[in-house]
Design brief:
The chain is mostly helical. The chain is built from six helices and two strands, in the order H-H-H-H-E-E-H-H. The chain has two domains: 95 residues, no CATH class; 28 residues. Helix 2 crosses helix 5.
Length: 162
């Protein structure tokens, strides 16, 4: 982990504090875009919130939008948003009671947490944050990059070394 020197560290700390206290960090349009990008045709999380309701009830959409803006801006989320429901899906279609070897676990998250995730991804891409500019060997969260590229580099390095 690299250390920042005095002035840079203070500037970075100030900018992070400004982001956290900035009430416009997460805007209504960001949440609207996050809602639009979500696929609500999947299972409902354990909180029972169905995202399809947002297209049918304007007042509910405004309330949810305001709550999500508040949660993201404060960086504090209710516990029920952080929880998911673990279920086993059969690898063989139609099998009601799959064996452990023929199943794969998935976690069903709340539709609210899916919206929050989309909004955060939108904000990361908008801000071109430091997470996206971390050097030649960082491939996660970068367009057209994959972690397998680092494996290829490693194998090439080992091959060249021997």
């Amino acid at each position: 982990m690299s250390k920042l020197t005095g002035g840079k560290q203070q500037t970075r700390r100030r900018s992070m504090e400004d982001e956290q206290t900035d009430k416009n960090f997460c805007k209504e349009e960001d949440v609207e875009k996050g809602i639009a990008e979500c696929n609500f045709n999947k299972a409902i999380g354990q909180d029972g919130f169905d995202g399809k309701m947002l297209s049918k009830a304007g007042h509910l959409k405004k309330t949810i939008n305001a709550k999500i803006q508040e949660w993201i801006s404060k960086g504090k989320f209710p516990e029920y948003i952080k929880e998911g429901r673990l279920i086993l899906l059969s690898k063989n279609q139609g099998e009601l009671y799959p064996e452990i070897g023929n199943s794969r676990p998935i976690v069903v998250n709340s539709h609210l947490s899916k919206i929050i995730e989309k909004v955060i991804v939108i904000k990361i891409h908008e801000q071109k944050s430091e997470l996206l500019v971390t050097g030649n060997y960082q491939n996660g969260f970068k367009e057209n990059k994959s972690t397998h590229l680092n494996l290829i580099r490693l194998f090439n390095h080992i091959k060249e070394s021997s």
